[in-house]
Sequence to fold (794 residues):
Amino acid sequence: MNSTQTSNTAPHASPAGVLDGIKIIDLSTGVAGQFAARVLGEYGADVVLLEPPGGCELRHPKAIEDRYLFWHLNTGKKSITLDLNSTQGQQALTHLIQSCDMVISDSTHDLQVMCQQNPRLIACRIRDFSPQGPYANWVGNEMIHQALSGLMYATGRADDKPLYGFGHRAYYSAGAIAVSCLLGALIMRDNNSKGQYLEVSVHETAVSMSQNSVTQFAYNATWMARGPYPGPFDIFKCTDGWVSMYCRGDRWSALCQGLGAPQVAEHPQLSSINNLVKNWSLAYRLLQPIVNKLTVEQFLAIVEIARGLASRVNTMKDVLDCNHLAGRNYWHTLADGVTSKPVLGPLFRFSKTPRVIQQGAPDLKPISTWIKESHEN
Amino acid sequence: MKTDALPLSAWRVLEISTAWAGPMLGRILSDLGADVVKLESLDSIDNWRGAVKGDDRKRYPLGEPGLRPYNRNAWFNTQNMGKHSVGIDLKSPIARLAVEELVKSCDALICNFAAGALKRMKLDYEHLIKINPQIILLEMVVTGEGAPLENTRGVGPTMEALAGMTVLTGYGDGVPQRTGPAYVDPIGALNGAMAMLLAARHRQQTGEGQRIELAQRESLMNWYGERFILAAVDGIEIAPNGNQSSVVAPHDAFKTMGDDEWIAIAVSTNAQWIALCEVLQKTEWIQDARFVNAESRIKNSDALNEMITSVIKQHNKLKLAFSLQKAGVCAAPVNNGKDIFEDSHLIANQFMIDVEHPEAGTHRYQGLPFHFDQKKERRQTPAPLLGQHTREILKDWAGLDDQTLDSLIDSGACIQA
Fold:
């Protein structure tokens, strides 16, 4: 998406959503819960983000990289501010819960009591750690979850420290699990008219995404380490950028041929797939000086002819400018006060029940104003 | 359907998939109650069953591939738990009738083969709805159709690069670093689960099936969408800097006692900093002007990390993590496979399960994080042998008789384990 491209406005007219008529109270303060509620809102649910006076923490990020996190997580929602430390605030929440279908929380709200007050309620608590066991009182963050999950141990160079990555990916993933749990419970409620209380653990989510670490150790007492990929894969430097390249064993010869280095494929330590995997660092040392003189486009073309797989290591700008995403109308813009901001495309595309976002992330609104406007509408 | 059944109980799902994203989605759908049948053959084998004659020995029980390595691969056996396997050649004209009968009897089909593969097998949506108008088709592809890159093929590390994720991890030296296990794959599976449940509810309410296109690059981008918006609105791209945070310090991995053992520590408040100094018995650091607040700790992070490293190398990572957490400091051991296998919290919560597999033996597997009221009653079954359920499923689902089955197996179009 660049200044010369016309970006799309998110469509307003829409077919009936899968979750039309479902009312959700989003009590969450962090990424996982707010992401979950956003996704459900995109498919028809009416989502109200309930915030403390002054707004939730994500409205006031300290880190520059999170400047637009609140916007990204809260498009399509309404917001009301409510002081839950006051009696009136608690009463208002009780009233709201009576008429809603789902509630999502990542803090200390007593969701089980809410389920008693409204037996059709589906309530989801997202926690860093499940409440029983030795880590029950531990505090977590993104790096902590990636450390415990095994992803961090296996990311980075063999001779350097483990890297956790960046951002909030474990929390987004827990949000996705929360969406599936809530939808699953809704389908169950469609059948039996009963709500339920659900718990999602960020820790368990992250471990379930750690490939096969537990099993590999169980099978033969080994584990994945940092360093070379278990296959002919690497990131190569070209004259104008980086390329991530994967080449199957049966394409290896063709790749070396394409690079003008057939002798590398014939090297005795690299001439079979098993040897190639075992001695990949040698292969890399021999190929990198050749690739180093090519442009990204030249290297991609050679890999393509050899039927290998490769991509430029794209920057944010590369992705924003990608013609393919523009051709698929991936980027949208929505009003944010007097200006507008970008919105990413859908997570998945349905042929019959597409995503709909009616509005950008909400402004803060006291409950009194919200009630007045609701009555007027 | 029983009124207290799991969300996808009585659902029949066909799976045409390979490696991680597709199979993990199938495993999730099984965990949500569906009967999942993997359609596979020796000619088009799931990559994670490994090479027919065996693969990297780190994937097999005691490093031994055995006579049928494709039934003993830890990678496959993790992501395919709870499923059935029908050994069938999807390209064989002889098997076409059986395939169509399976399609007729199922609720959904999931696939993560390369773009265009289903069409070549005449199993794309246009063909499927002629056989089963209510079917839900979920296709996982790299880039999605209708634009210049629609035929892009990829694996985890190339998809992550394409999606702008690889560039966000690194040591601060300008060299991009991939995620160890390709993170795009499980993220694809989690997206697939959300999509399938949305489509399942829609079908439950209206009787209408549909096609779902899951372009893995596009869904992955949502996992750090705020970074694209920052680049689009303000033109800012933030280069990675190891494990350092821009707002708090220390925030890093520190080497502890042992070979390649590390602890992750993230101090976000002054109180946590004081607690860290006390646990490390370095209370003199509390008064050090270089470290009195987050701003000064970030400014002096090189000296800070050096001092912490010099002390921490004498500690056991797990014991120190418990001590720090008890004092309110955000910390955890950097776990390898052995550590996760032995993780006391996961064990206490029965997150890991011991399952007996007929050709691989009894081993521990990591679970999935879905907890419904009814789930505890569900017994976890192992990943299937290649073609283990061919006769059973082709009889029960496709309605084939013994004579037809014998003929399919004799011709090689189907295999029965």
